[in-house]
Amino acid sequence: MFLQRMREKTQSWVAYVIVSLLVLSFAFWGISSYFGQNQSGGPVASVNGEDISFADFSSAYRTFLQSSYAQSQYFGQQETLAKQVVLKNLIERLAINQYLAGVGFAVSQDQIDAALMSVPLFSDNGVFSPALFKRFLMANNTTAQAFISDFSARMVMAQWSQGLQMSSFSTELELLDTISLLRQKRNILYAIIPASSHDIPSISSEDIQTYYMQHKENYISPEQVKISYVILRFSDLLSRVKPTEKELLSYYAQHSARYDKPERWQVNIFSMNSPLSESEIIKQIDRHSENNHPVDNVSTVKLVQEKVWLTADRLTRDVGQTLAVTPVGHATKLFKTGKDSYIVYFLLAHETAVNKQYSDVKKEIKEAYVHEVATQQWTTTLEEMSQLAYEHPDTLNPLAKHVGLQVHASDFFTENYDKKSGIQGNPEVIAAAFSDDVLKGGNNSDLIKLDEGKSAVVLRVSTSIPENQQPLEVVAEGIKKNLIQEKETQRAKQSADQLKQALEENQSIKDIQKRFGVILTKALVGRFSDSIPNEILQQTFVLSKDHISVAKMQNNNFAVVKVLSIIPGKTSTVSDKDKTVYRNVIENELAQAELFAYVQTIISAADIDIHQKDLKVNA
Questions:
Q1: In this structure, are strands 301-311 and 264-273 parallel, antiparallel, or unpaired?
Q2: Distance between CA atoms of 30 and 415, rounded to whole angstroms?
Q3: What is the mean pLDDT of residues 456-469?
Q4: 166 and 21 share one domain
Q5: Cα Rg of the chain (Å, integer)
Q6: Which label site among 124, 577, 578, 603 has the fewest CB atoms less than 10 Å from its CB?
Q7: According to the model, what pLDDT value does residue 31 have?
Q8: Cα dihedral sign for 298, 301, 304, 310?
Q9: For residue 619, what is the enclosing H or E element?
Q10: 531 exposed, middle or buried (CB, 10 Å; 0-12, 13-18, 19+)?
Q11: At what angle do helices 54-66 and 79-102 cross, to 10 degrees?
Q12: Rounded distance, CA 546 to CA 189, Å?
């Protein structure tokens, strides 16, 4: 992981905040209202006396199942482990938030507003759009209060993490040692022993039967189900909304201000800290501006934001009035922010206010109206679907008839996630279909949201086939292939071990190549070389000089590797720019280690009580 990060650029805290707040908030933790409040049960756990509700856990668990990580790591028989992972993360998050609040970490409303306004998802031509923010909240079925609460908590976490990173440092000796290690090269000798079926004795029917009897548990067909389901897509509701001209005109009259373009200025924002008088600083800035030199060439001046648009309705009166009289290509007066601290705006462009008429924005009006009406219908219809699924638990027909949808049928599928296409490949659908309430109880499922909340489904099991033992004649061919592969692997490993011994005994390369029918290849490689297979490269850099090892490769091949010599990486040719990148990553790794230690200490000191150890989120 460390070596990989050495090849990546260090990210800013703003990017960290945006990614963690907008992606993780909804792709992992979930919002309690995301799946509604129909879950029952008391708190699942408490941390220092503060509860984690069953609704929050259920929401986080279901959202976690949608993640690609969960789909590949936790599914089927590992459901209990997946629940434990989600609960552990919820507990850790709450404990950390409590600790940060206790030691005084906080963000102001101004900081929250500034961070929200910098999110591209909520921006329209560089300006924060309340309409886009509202649509985001609607699409994720949450409230502004819930989202901003989660958003601000993550900003505090980012603040803490950034503080640790800023306080982390590395010495020049550590830096040079790390660079030397990463740029190290090694001379190696290696050979690849292929797994071959040549001269392998034939597999008898007795061998196949013996293997089958010893591994019968591997040849049990898992339980399979077919489901009937009703699915509603948000796009279907959008297509059903056909507004009249009168409705669009009325909507425009109510929201015309939303489509007006306010007066705005594009600026570069600079900060400075200087004991010089305000007039002297202004003279220096003006002198550079007149000569077309960058303002940040002025001593003590630092560029904070580049090419940002500021709108008249979101500026203080003083700043707005100053920008209004500042020519394009010039800097404003200084605005004092503290002792010897100032901020200045360099004006790049100016756009006057524009009041758009209905004919100018008719297309946008229609899109907004249709989306708003469809969203209202979406909320109402989902509530109706949930209610009808509950009132008629043994059929989907009343639900389908009421909302004007068809009842669909799936193919057979199992509980083991196998990346099937269609609805039967969705992890939430699989979890619901195999839940006790749906599979054994014969009831409809709860309403399940799919496609990041853009579609919703209610399902029931129409047919099920219990697990059964596969007969020998069905699996015999597969067993035969397995046995052949095992023999190939064993023989390749045996040959590799013998070749390793021959190298350790310093037998001649010519004799070894003749005896084993392989080619011993010499190579000079670095840590990130792509001239040799990755398995050999990884083994190369864990060996000491003159040591030999065997590495298993893809397709059951084996490789034998010997390190002939180790050449330290040169540090004298590393540029200052590259040194800065290395130093940033080293310090980031040190900060992450310190952060991990902090978290472990916080968790160890917390009073944690798990109330529901058997968490049945589908009950």
A1: antiparallel
A2: 24
A3: 94
A4: yes
A5: 32
A6: 577
A7: 33
A8: negative
A9: none
A10: exposed
A11: 120
A12: 10
Domain end position, chosen among 466, 488, 504: 466
Q: How far apart are the first and last CA of the chain?
A: 40
Token pair listed for 603: 């968790």
- Helix 144-167 / helix 130-139 crossing angle, nearest 10 deg: 100
Give percent above pLDDT 90 in the chain: 38
* CA–CA distance, 88 with 496 (Å, rounded to integer): 44
Could you please report the per-residue DSSP string of 142-183?
A: --HHHHHHHHHHHHHHHHHHHHHHHH----HHHHHHHHHHHT
CA distance linking residue 34 with residue 59, whole number of Å: 7
In what helix (H) or strand (E) does residue 141 lie, and over which residues does it extend?
none
* One domain, residues 48 and 146: yes
Kindly report which listed range (15-29, 346-360, 471-485) carries the lowest average pLDDT score: 15-29
44 and 135 inside one domain: yes
| Locus of tokens 């004799």 | 511
The side-by-side arrangement of strands in the sheet containing 608-610 is 50-52, 45-47, 608-610
pLDDT, residue 294, reads 64
Is position 618 within any domain? no
User: Which residue type, as a one-letter code, is found at position 364?
Assistant: E
Range of the domain at 92: 2-170+587-610
Rounded Cα–Cα distance for residues 267 and 429 (Å):
50
Q: 3-class secondary structure for 24-61?
A: HHHHHHCCCCCCCCCCCCCCCEEECCEEECHHHHHHHH
- The tokens for 18 are 């945006």
- For tokens 């095992």, what's the residue? 486
Last residue of a domain, one of 351, 372, 404: 351
Distance CA 323, CA 544 (A): 66
Start-end of H helices in 168-244: 172-182, 205-214, 234-240
Three-class SS of 14-26? HHHHHHHHHHHHH
Question: Which pLDDT score is estimated for 24?
Answer: 37
- Summarised one tens digit per residue, pLDDT across range 103-115 is 888 888 878 887 8
Asked if residue 491 has pLDDT above 80, the reply is yes
Helix/strand/coil for 356: coil
Range from 238-247, 277-286, 371-380, 474-483 carrying the lowest mean pLDDT: 277-286
Q: What is the mean pLDDT of residues 59-70?
A: 65
> Which amino acid, 94?
L
Q: Is 353 helix (H, G, I), strand (E, B) or coil?
A: coil
**177-181, 303-307, 363-367: the lowest-pLDDT one:** 303-307
How far is the C-alpha of 163 from the C-alpha of 111, rounded, in Å? Answer: 16
Higher pLDDT, 251 or 1: 251
Give the other-Cβ count within 10 Å of 93's Cβ: 18
The number of CA neighbours under 13 Å toward the Cβ of 103 is 10
Distance (Å, rounded) from C-alpha 77 to C-alpha 540? 37
**Do residues 153 and 279 share a domain?**
no
pLDDT higher than threshold 70 for residue 227: yes
Residue 215 sits in the same domain as residue 267: no
- Phi–psi pair at 610, nearest 5 degrees: -95, 115
Exposed, middle or buried, 573 (CB in 10 Å: 0-12/13-18/19+)? exposed
Domains contained in the chain, number: 4
Give residue for tokens 């609704």: 55
From edge to edge, which strands make up the β-sheet containing 185-193? Answer: 521-526, 185-193, 558-567, 548-552
Of the listed ranges 81-85, 203-207, 474-478, 515-519, the least confidently predicted one is 81-85
| pTM, rounded to two decimals | 0.51
